[in-house]
Amino acid sequence: STQLFLPSGLQRQPPPHRPRVASMPFKVGFIVGKDTDVVEDPKFTDMGGDVSFLADMPDDWRVDPVSHEYLKDCEPGTKGYVHCDVAIAWWIKKNCPDIEVDIICGPGDITLKRLQSNDFNFTLGFNAVNLMVANNQETPKIMKMLATCGNLAPDWGFEQYILQKSNYMKDCMANGVPMAPTIFSLKGKRSPEGLLDEIKARGWKTFVMKQSESGFSLGFCKLKVEECETDPSFLTTYFKDYKHISEFVVQEAVDGFTRNWETRCFWYNGEFLYAIANMAAVSTEDGAERIITGDDIPAEFLENAKRIGKEAIKCLPSLQVPGGGAVPMVLARTDIGCSDSQLYDKDLNWDPTKKTFFLNEIEPSSTTYFVRHLKFDCIPTYGRLYAETARKMKARMDLNVAPPMKRAAAKRVAKPVRAMKAVNGKKGKAKAKAATVMKVMKATKRR
Q1: Across all residues in the chain, what is the average pLDDT?
Q2: Nearest 10 degrees: Cα torsion 381, 384, 386, 390
Q3: Residue 353 burial (CB < 10 Å; 0-12/13-18/19+)?
């Protein structure tokens, strides 16, 4: 059986709670765009996934598996399937009457007016990475809308923190999170010759290059130092083809990465939800990628992935609320690799005879959730979690715009509590003051 770890208060949930709507529903946008996380799929339903709640969903938001376009943009009669970002949004629409759901298909449906018409917008399946990968004439315009709308969740600052990989990687390194030896090659300060010299000075034999502002393994390559010395065109061509990329992330190649499971842990509110582990196609006998989850993941890999992922998640900022304040972060994913052989970095002390687990990347809420590979139906879980975050954000936003008199009243109510917490020899005075406050309160009550 699969062990599912849910944040406190969500374990052993009863049937979906439908809050009493005491006022007008608040509006939440869900920016969607997934085409690799299908829910309407035999693999999902065979393990017990429920898709019955999708029966009345308009076909517009289903995705054509051939063109990868939403059916609203396809020829009439095209068949498509729901992916998890739309499924989560629709689940909330069906089960949470206090939330008015606006499903926004990225990039075509994104406008500044529409984004700002909602209280806030979750980037559930589409974000800045998708725009950078597309990198077309619409990219700057849509990027500006996301950057200036002021109500993304996660907020634009967090988007940039994750998009520019050196931000969170440097923070993780500073906090002792193990990572492969890394060089950040910055636009305007890099050259093929300079990078190769730096790599050789570190003692590396083989290295990999990937990019900030990218995804889906685009721009990834693995090179040998000896080959680059013999034929400099490898690096020269790479620098020319990707000159627009602000940052190359260059790391010593970890051979164990292809032999061992990469374990991806999913976190919500900073708490562990579940994990999947995958092994690269180059490492399997049949040449196909393998994905496992639940108790099929070897305990050594799962426990070390959770241990390292927990420390990495601590480095992330909280989810900023429009207008001020913060709530715990929505979904984030930590990808943990395993080294089991010799590395040559001059400053590294990993034992080549033992497994060393390390953080490879952190992914934001728009990442792949692997819903059909799990042993439980995660859609209701995510529906409840995102709905609860939405309510917390709305409550904080309402507090931000509360009339000054209400804020002042809240401060006055807090004064007796502060008085009772006096320390350093002032306990007697604090108790006397608290007693006086209580007498006044009782006298007022008798009136």
Answers
A1: 87
A2: -170
A3: exposed
pLDDT in tens, 141-153: 999 999 999 999 9
The amino acid present at 303, given as its one-letter code, is: E
CA distance 389 to 153: 10
Alpha-carbon distances, residue 247 vs 130, 144, 165, 167 (angstroms): 17, 20, 8, 11
Confidence at residue 403, expressed as pLDDT on a 0 to 100 scale? 74
361-377 burial code (b ≥16 CB/10 A, e <16): bbbbbbbbbbbbbbbbb
Alpha-carbon Rg for the chain in angstroms: 25
pLDDT (tens digit per residue) in 397-408 = 999 987 766 555
Q: How far apart are CA 259 and CA 337, in angstroms?
A: 10
Looking at residue 406, its pLDDT comes to 58
Tokens of 166: 């050196």
> CB count, 10 Å around CB of 120?
25
